[in-house]
């Protein structure tokens, strides 16, 4: 079995200018994921990490779960410890965080993350995850990291990935040369290569959307859902509806089996619920590297220029032909100006 650490070192040869910092950074993420995985696995046995964190909300006004706070602290500490990151931005932090040690200030990278996606599902034993995105800083090394270092379009990402904590724990990542998955073996305490060069099927049979919000959806989304539900033997419709309510879990299933995930505007979140920087960009990078697509219904997600840290966006991601078809319905029946 090839471990994650061995595989990362092996792949350094693909980057002639690599000097080891990115390898060390990914190792920090691996280490933090193992700690978070341990706590999630004991969540059903103890009460101190289950439920809301009294009186604490994130920047979007959402009540933070105890595990949200724990995971955020673990990943933040792990990323700061090795000095390869000059700062982080997290869904659980109001503002970006500057790492001000001499080593960190001279480092090349910033990390944006959702430390624990879907954490409200932990008390009912539903799969949840961690999402991360890595950029090269644009400010001068040696100086404190700035907001502009984080407000970069997704096309500038140099690495991204997620960890899904489910029936097995997997870490999936890309550095721009394909998508690779590693499954955690608790008996060895290591992630082993289990899915090399993952490819999203061009056409899937699954659509993932919270249809409870149907009445609020843009007309293009409503028409696409009806299209998915129509009987058509040639295209093997109707498609299957599968929605877990944990983005990482829905995305992971659709990437392996083929499908589309949609979280549109027109719900209780007028601009969509998902965060461009912490969720949409990293998963879009993975989707594209695996042969899929990600849009806001009209534009390529990774070309959107962010204007704020916690910016939200509608999201269509998954098998390329399905994202294209959804885009056709959006263009025909909806427009960005009317959403």
Gist of the model:
The chain is an alpha+beta fold and 339 residues long. The chain is built from 9 helices and 15 strands.
Layout of secondary structure:
Layout: H1 4-11, H2 21-41, E1 52-57, E2 63-65, H3 66-81, E3 85-90, E4 97-98, H4 102-105, E5 109-117, E6 128-136, H5 147-150, E7 157-165, E8 169-174, E9 179-185, E10 190-195, E11 206-208, H6 219-229, E12 240-241, H7 247-257, E13 260-263, H8 276-289, E14 293-295, E15 315-318, H9 320-333
Helix pairs in contact: 1-2, 2-3, 6-9
Describe this structure in words.
This protein has helices at residues 4-11, 21-41, 66-81, 102-105, 147-150, 219-229, 247-257, 276-289, 320-333; strands at residues 52-57, 63-65, 85-90, 97-98, 109-117, 128-136, 157-165, 169-174, 179-185, 190-195, 206-208, 240-241, 260-263, 293-295, 315-318. It has 339 residues and is α+β, with helices and mostly antiparallel strands. The protein has an 8-stranded mixed beta sheet, with helices on both faces. A 5-stranded mixed beta sheet has the order 12-11-13-15-14, with helices on both faces. A hairpin with a 4-residue loop joins strand 8 (169-174) and strand 9 (179-185). It is globular and about 60 Å long.
